[in-house]
Design goal:
The chain contains three helices and eight strands; from the N terminus they run βααββαβββββ. It has 143 residues and is mostly beta strands. It has one domain.
């Protein structure tokens, strides 16, 4: 699951990540949790010292865009780009992963962590929401 602490001492993940206008428009005042996300992919690029993380969000918007409804979508998928990585550790892997990630600001940018399978620790200068899409997940209800 992708989560970010939302107490008064911590900002919501949508406030920490760049390029979140689309997610704000799709979800409105309802901020999607990153808890219970289905992790599909982690892609590393050594030349750009970057990583892409693709996952399905557990929360579906209460009032989805018309194009999502017309296509029978029930799942929103996002891609997060972590740029200028200064440290990275991945331990474990599985064919299906419901993960808990935390995004925290720090002196060198942001740290994205996960304490399940896989265990992740990634420190990057920036985290950007690069893609939002929707699809029909047969394992979920109608959304």
């Amino acid at each position: 699951m992708l989560t970010c602490n939302s107490s008064d001492d911590h900002k919501d993940w949508v406030d920490l990540v760049l390029n979140t206008t689309g997610i704000r428009e799709i979800y409105g005042a309802q901020r999607p949790s990153l808890s219970g996300a289905d992790l599909h992919e982690i892609r590393l690029d050594r030349h750009a010292t970057s990583a892409l993380i693709r996952c399905d969000l557990a929360d579906y918007p209460a009032n989805p865009p018309r194009k999502y409804s017309q296509r029978g979508c029930n799942t929103v998928q996002i891609v997060l780009a972590l740029s200028e990585i200064s440290s990275l550790s991945i331990t474990g892997w599985a064919s299906t992963m419901s993960v808990d990630l935390a995004i925290e600001p720090g002196p060198d940018g942001f740290t994205l962590t996960c304490r399940a399978v896989p265990q992740l620790d990634i420190t990057a200068r920036w985290i950007t929401l690069t893609k939002i899409s929707a699809h029909r997940n047969a394992l979920r209800g109608t959304g």
